[in-house]
Write a structure and sequence with these properties.
The chain is mainly beta. It has one domain (about 1-45, about 75-275). The protein contains two helices and 18 strands. It has helices spanning about 115-125, 265-275; strands spanning about 1-5, 35-40, 80-90, 90-95, 105-115, 130, 135, 140-145, 155-160, 160-165, 170-180, 185-190, 195, 210, 215-220, 220, 225-235, 250-260. The strands form two sheets. Strands 1, 2, 4, 5, 6, 9, 10, 12, 13, 14 and 18 form an eleven-stranded mixed beta sheet that branches. Strands 3, 7, 8, 11, 15, 16 and 17 form a seven-stranded antiparallel beta sheet that branches. Strand 12 (about 185-190) and strand 13 (about 195) form a beta hairpin. The radius of gyration is 22 Å and the shape is globular.
């Protein structure tokens, strides 16, 4: 059993309830959220990004000092990444959680970009965009990116990918709604980096918890028990990933979702109950052999 941290929301954000088992799954744009929690584990993301390797200057010093040669300037990549935003207050406390299985119950990912990038991506996949609709697993959880006002960001599903449209400089949040009576742990990455410690993401790391019939909001990269650095869309070269581990995985948000040990009342399980047959072996008597 591991301990989890509970994130206390800002007092000026009102709570948004989830009514009924499946109500509100498609409407993910609430700015107000129920308490969040995360598991204990590695350190938080550093207070500021470390310099990118390609930002290291050459050095004409003593011969025993390693010198990185200066190469040609790396051209800017088009589209958006997630930059290290302003500090946001989001204090945490702790709660226990035991995963029912070491493998995720479900996995969800978003690809995000600017309007031109999303359109180009859809054309690259050779399909026409369709209205956005994102569910985890059997539909028990829904996930969306929302803007600073809590409005769901526009996007499309195309070729099996979810494409979200962002705007340079705009802040966004990740919102998860739980339509079940069970808790789930959500291990989340942005641009390939864990949102809690800022390191290359791994599903085995700690994650945020979403309460039964609750709503979880992830505001940014966690910097302490009390604060996070807000998620803000920005140029790829200015992204947190590009300034730390590299921009290879810029433009994607991923979630590994774990159920808690014990029974989980998901829509699929309730459907099985509804379809249960009291007399499964219907038929006539057979003659003796």
């Amino acid at each position: 059993m591991s301990l989890m941290m509970r994130v206390h929301r800002h007092p000026w954000i009102s709570a948004v309830p989830v009514i009924g088992l499946l109500a509100g799954l498609a409407a993910c744009g609430a700015s107000a959220m129920s308490p969040q929690k995360v598991a204990t584990g590695a350190d938080y993301a550093p207070s500021r990004p470390s310099p990118s390797p390609r930002a290291v200057e050459s050095y004409d010093g003593p011969s025993h000092v390693a010198v990185e040669p200066r190469g040609e300037p790396v051209p800017d990549r088009p589209g958006l990444g997630t930059s290290w935003g302003e500090a946001v207050v989001a204090p945490v406390s702790f709660s226990p959680f035991v995963r029912s299985n070491p493998s995720p119950w479900a996995e969800v990912l978003f690809h995000y970009n600017d309007v031109a990038g999303v359109t180009a991506h859809a054309q690259y996949l050779g399909t026409r965009p369709a209205p956005l609709e994102i569910y985890a697993g059997d539909g028990a959880l829904s996930i969306a990116l929302v803007d600073d006002a809590g409005r769901t960001l526009p996007g499309f599903t195309a070729g099996g990918r979810t494409l979200i449209m962002g705007e340079d400089g705009a802040r966004y949040r990740i919102v998860v709604r739980n339509a079940t009576a069970a808790r789930f742990e959500i291990v989340t990455s942005v641009d390939g980096l864990d949102v809690i410690d800022g390191q290359p993401a791994d599903p085995n790391r700690r994650g945020y918890l979403v309460d039964p019939h609750g709503v979880l909001t992830i505001d940014g990269f966690r910097t302490s028990d009390d604060t996070v650095a807000a998620f803000r869309f920005g140029k790829v070269a200015e992204s947190y990933a590009a300034q730390t581990s590299g921009d290879r995985n810029v433009g994607v948000v991923g979630m590994a979702i774990f159920s808690e040990r014990g029974a989980v009342w998901t829509p699929a399980e309730l459907g099985r109950r509804e379809a249960a047959d009291p007399f499964p072996q219907r038929g006539y008597a057979m003659p003796p052999r």
